[in-house]
Amino acid sequence: MLTDLVEVPAGTFTMGATEFYADEAPRREVDVRAFRLERHPVTNRQFAAFVRETGYVTLAEQQPDPADFPGADPADVVPGGLVFTPTDGPVPLHDWSRWWRWQPGACWRAPAGPGSDLDGRDDHPVVQVAYADAQAYAAWAGRELPTEAEHEYAARGGLPATTYAWGDEARPEGRLMANTWQGRFPYLNTGAAGWSGTSPVGSFPANGYGLVDMIGNVWEWTTTLYALGADRDAADALARGEDVAVATAGTGSCCAPARADVGRLDEASLARASAAPGERHPGASSRAAPTCAPRSTACATAPPPGHRSRRTPPPRTPASAASSALNPSAAQAADRPSLPHPQRDSNPCYRRERAGS
Fold first, then answer.
1. Among 218, 343, 235, 195, which Cα is nearest to 284's?
2. How far apart are alpha carbons 167 and 184 in whole angstroms?
3. What is the DSSP string of 270-313?
4. The whole model's pTM is what?
5. Which one, of 75, 84, 88, lies nearest residue 106 by Cα?
6. For the chain, N or C: smaller number of CB within 10 Å?
7. Alpha-carbon dihedral sign for residues 221, 227, 231, 232
């Protein structure tokens, strides 16, 4: 039932980008040790087996604590999640709330809320999964979630720094390489090879390592905290399990851990499940999260302005316009998970479309 592991060799690569979005900088050389990564995102069938065996209840299915949402309408403080809902026409793209709506009852079993189900989707990636849920699945499987660097490195499939994970052309020889948004975002999706939401894992070409859906389909969780600029070094170090005594400058970034918080953040959100050395696990097709402090969005939260999502340049589009992770029937989030968030983290993760993200 567990996904086969694919060997990813050790290497050094150029991570990040400066051409498209400010939070993807700086571009830097990163060393990655050899590890193994699951061939595809965790599917609904696999997550269901985990739930049957353990009785696990995801965050999206649990009753939120009203104290975590001061001032919120009590009617909204119920189990549920955000669901992507196309608009009626063109809208300003700086406001993600125009296409994400809060849906009581939305969860991995019912991605769009009551009345929706997983019929015919056993081999689709599981969605509406929080960072904590992904960690729980990984622990059950005896594996770990990857760091952002490991994920980006693996997504390249052995290629150098190219615009896309498969090269510099969006559609080499006219071929659609990943399940990403087709049409006009956020109101017209003509479908990727017939799929207007998620698609069965492996429906699109594998990369050079034999990994599928590293680009498109769903967002995916990693263990790296969201940070900006120089703070990225501290976030990368924490993700590698290193003891960071002092967080780098806190100017301009609300997401970098403060000196007193480093140990707490590391323990709370970067603690890893026991696993065989070098094994990494894509989580429950989850590897992502949203804004500042706790960069974890879920069923209950949505990608914040400026979050890092799979977007295809040009044109520039916020909130993952080019992302197939934008399943009209599931909530999604940014690429770097972070702390367990009081605002109900239940999101499928995301894999960046551009290798330089």
1. 218
2. 24
3. S------TTEE---SS-----SSSS----TT--PPTT------S
4. 0.73
5. 84
6. N
7. positive
- CA distances in angstroms from 24 to 50, 230, 231, 308, listed in the order given: 34, 11, 12, 7
User: The tokens 């790296």 sit on which residue?
Assistant: 224
Mean pLDDT of the chain, nearest integer = 74
Residue 21 pLDDT class (50, 70, 90 cuts): confident
Nearest to 301 by CA among 347, 352, 253, 348: 347
Cross-strand partners of 125:
43
290-329 per-position pLDDT tens digit: 222 221 222 222 233 333 332 222 222 222 222 223 333 3
Q: Which residue has the higher pLDDT, 50 or 160?
A: 50
From the number of C-beta atoms within 10 Å of its C-beta (0-12, 13-18, 19+), residue 120 rates as exposed
Closest CA to 312 of 160, 124, 183: 183
Distances (CA, A) of 183 to 86, 303, 323: 12, 20, 11
Distance CA 88, CA 137 (A): 37
Tell me the C-alpha distance between 42 and 304, whole Å: 25
Q: Cβ(258)–Cβ(250) under 8 Å?
A: yes
Q: Is the peptide bond before 315 cis (omega within 30 degrees of 0)?
A: yes
Do 329 and 83 meet the contact criterion of CB atoms below 8 Å apart?
yes
Angle at 238 between CA 236 and CA 240, to 5 degrees: 70
- The DSSP call for residue 44 is H
Tell me, what's the pLDDT at 204?
97
Backbone angles phi, psi at 217, to 5 degrees: 75, -70
Structure tokens at 355: 């290798």
Provide the pLDDT for residue 3: 97
CA distances from 104 to 296, 297, 341, 352 (A): 19, 16, 18, 28
